[in-house]
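Open question from group meeting: does this chain pack into something compact, or does most of it stay loose? Before anyone orders reagents, we agreed to write out a predicted structure and look at it together. Recording both the input and the output here so the notebook holds the full record.
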Amino acid sequence: MTKTTDLRRAIKKRFVPLLEGKGFQTDPRYMPQFLIFRRFTPERIHVCDIQWEKYGRPRFVVNFGSSAPLGVVCHGADIEPNDVWAATTAWRGRLKPGRSPSTGSWFRQDPRLLERFWRGSGLKPPEDVVSELIELFSEIEDYWEAGTVGAHIRVHDIRWSHDRIA
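Structure tokens returned:
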């Protein structure tokens, strides 16, 4: 069992069904590093993924974006709708509870450095981390719906990617 097993199980138990209930399809092709979700509407493809910390610590961030229903062109390559993910969209963002650019501000079970002094080095319950994710995910939905940039998301315009029109 790895350090992320309990957190992955909690996400599978609570977050995946929540997104599937909102019309998202799960794409596990890039696991264990990424778990991708896509929702197809007549106007847009909404895509988000859980990106796990690459060194195996129980931390992750949520990347998100959207594209035209026909997919995107990224670095000159046509990306089909079923292959669109946050990294290929022109307007992409990231949801995380902290403001730092480091993985220290990602969703995490392990305590931050200062927390270790008063809480010790034990892990947070995975359910608490997933509850935080579920609470903050509404900021992504607000962005897709109205363009509102919440306190926990950052959005970037990527010039080498654009929606596929025809």
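Observations to bring back to the group:
The mean pLDDT is 91.
Residues 5-159 form one domain.
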